[in-house]
Amino acid sequence: MSSLSQLEPRPVKSSSNTQDDIVYEYIFDAILEQRLAPGTKLSEEALGEIFGVSRTIIRRALLRLSHEQVVSIRPNRGAVVAAPSVEEAKQIFAARRVVELAVIELAVKNATPQSLRRIRAMVQAEQDAFDRGDIGSGIRLSGEFHLELAQMANNLPLLNFQRSVVSQTSLIIAQYEVGHQAQCSFNEHDALLQAIEAGDPAQAVAMMKDHLDHIEGKLNLETESASTDLHVVFSDVVKKHASVRAN
Question: Which runs of consecutive H residues, i.e. helices, occur in 154-234?
Fold first, then answer.
């Protein structure tokens, strides 16, 4: 079995870059990109085979995701991607409104030229992804825009909470959104960024309220399709392992 350290994984947000971090980030991205369907069984054996690591490492990554409430670990039945009910979805959106409004206000206050350049590049990358038809990357960047706002806010508890509600919102959209629309529009992200750059917290808060209204307004009770086959979802990892074995 190939070691995950032999691969060239996508950069992870953690500076430690451990095997746990790499597995965690791959699964987290699959959730943000809505490639993992709510309710998908996350077999430790299958994931261990895909990533080339022990079940202990897989178990630790799944436990981290369960703390963020995007994975449910059921006693004696294993882990599944969380599938929020309609009532839970409403509660998650209510919580997201609270945290997003606090985040955007602090982001205006604490924005630096460096952080503004970084998030401006992210907004452009989001638009470029949608323009070239890379919907998965566009959705992930759309979610990461909101995480970057929390970084700009310079408040670690808010960042941790934001990370959880953004990923939970992605699950809700995968279940209930009409069609395959982008999670957030480039134009709205661009306008939010302009309000931050202008140093206008009242305008930024008002625009964030409208932005969240638009996201929630796209939802209904129809179930979106996403793959429940772990080998399909993580096909890039499987291909990298095959390349490592071939060499």
Answer: 156-176, 186-197, 201-217, 230-233
> Residues near 43 by Cβ (< 8 Å), separated by ≥ 6?
78, 230
Structural domain tally of the chain? 2
User: Residue 78: how many CB atoms within 10 A of its CB?
Assistant: 15
The C-alpha atoms of residue 201 and residue 204 are separated, in whole angstroms, by 5
- Residues 136 and 185 both lie in one domain: yes
Cα(20)–Cα(159) distance, rounded to whole angstroms? 20
Q: Does the pLDDT of residue 125 top 90, yes or no? A: yes
Q: Which residue has the tokens 């691969």?
A: 7
pLDDT of the residue at 152: 95
User: Mean pLDDT throughout 120-124?
Assistant: 93
At 128, the amino acid letter reads D
- Residue 180's domain comprises 86-217
Helices 44-51, 55-67: crossing angle, 10 deg rounding: 110
Tell whether 103 and 65 lie within a shared domain.
Answer: no
Type of residue numbered 92: I
Contact 90, 49 (CB under 8 A): no
Say which residue the tokens 């890039």 belong to: 236
Percent of the chain with pLDDT over 70: 81
**Both tokens of residue 229?**
């086959």
Look at residues 56, 83, 57 and name the one whose alpha carbon lies nearest to residue 70: 83
* 48 pLDDT above the threshold of 60: yes
Sheet order of strands, 41-42 included: 41-42, 78-81, 71-74
Residue 16 predicted with pLDDT over 60: no
The pLDDT score that the predictor gives to residue 238 is 65
